[in-house]
TrEMBL record:
A GO CC annotation given for this chain: mitochondrion
Full protein name: Small ribosomal subunit protein bS16c
PANTHER family named among the record's database cross-references: 30S RIBOSOMAL PROTEIN S16 (PTHR12919), SMALL RIBOSOMAL SUBUNIT PROTEIN BS16M (PTHR12919:SF20)
Pfam families tied to this protein: Ribosomal_S16 (PF00886)
Organism: Meconopsis punicea
PROSITE patterns (alphabetical): RIBOSOMAL_S16
Membership in a protein family: Belongs to the bacterial ribosomal protein bS16 family.
Compartment annotation: Plastid, Chloroplast
Keywords: Chloroplast, Plastid, Ribonucleoprotein, Ribosomal protein
Length: 89
């Protein structure tokens, strides 16, 4: 299973996080499948590769809580197509 989660980068006391698609069994700094953005909590900056995030979400990747909140603020989920089950109702 694939998850969208944060991967810590930067130096001591100055963390920057990459948003990556990674296998669940990998450790935090493990090998990622693809980098899909970054998050700087100190400057409160975010960059998201929206097409890549949508691709992984459509394939069934689950975002972690923090990545979900970051993506929600960037309005990534508004670009997701509506579930087919809700179309039939």
């Amino acid at each position: 299973m694939v998850k969208l989660r944060l991967k810590r980068c930067g130096r001591k006391q100055r963390a920057i996080y990459r948003i990556v698609a990674i296998d669940v069994r990998s450790r935090r700094e493990g090998r990622d499948l693809r980098k899909v953005g970054f998050y700087d909590p100190i400057k409160n900056q975010t960059y998201s590769n929206v097409p890549a995030i949508l691709y992984f979400l459509e394939k069934g990747a689950q975002p972690t809580g923090t990545v979900h909140d970051i993506s929600k603020k960037a309005e990534v989920f508004k670009e997701l197509p509506v579930n087919q089950t809700s179309k039939n109702e």
